[in-house]
């Protein structure tokens, strides 16, 4: 799983000349994601986080956690 930016499509409504964000819509479908590969990649990252934590390497743990929460699937 690569660290990538998701392309978002913003939905906006107008109310008395004020834009109101209704949310975002990602450019991929939930059902079409490669789930086996995602599970494999997440497991590998979790294992690396555990090993770094066991070593007491806090800097690496934080870096890997950031990668895990900010990553998006290649769709």
Automatic annotation (TrEMBL):
InterPro entries: RVT_N (IPR025960). Residues 30-72 form the Reverse transcriptase N-terminal domain. The lineage of its organism: Bacteria, Bacillati, Cyanobacteriota, Cyanophyceae, Oscillatoriophycideae. It comes from Microseira wollei NIES-4236. One of its GO terms (molecular function) is RNA-directed DNA polymerase activity. Keywords: Nucleotidyltransferase, RNA-directed DNA polymerase, Transferase. This is RNA-directed DNA polymerase.
């Amino acid at each position: 799983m690569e660290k990538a930016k998701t392309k978002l499509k913003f939905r906006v409504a107008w109310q008395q000349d004020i834009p109101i964000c209704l949310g975002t819509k990602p450019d991929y479908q939930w059902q079409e994601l490669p789930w086996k590969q995602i599970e494999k990649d997440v497991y590998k990252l979790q294992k690396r986080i555990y090993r770094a934590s066991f070593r007491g390497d806090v800097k690496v743990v934080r870096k890997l956690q950031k990668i895990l929460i900010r990553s998006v699937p290649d769709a």
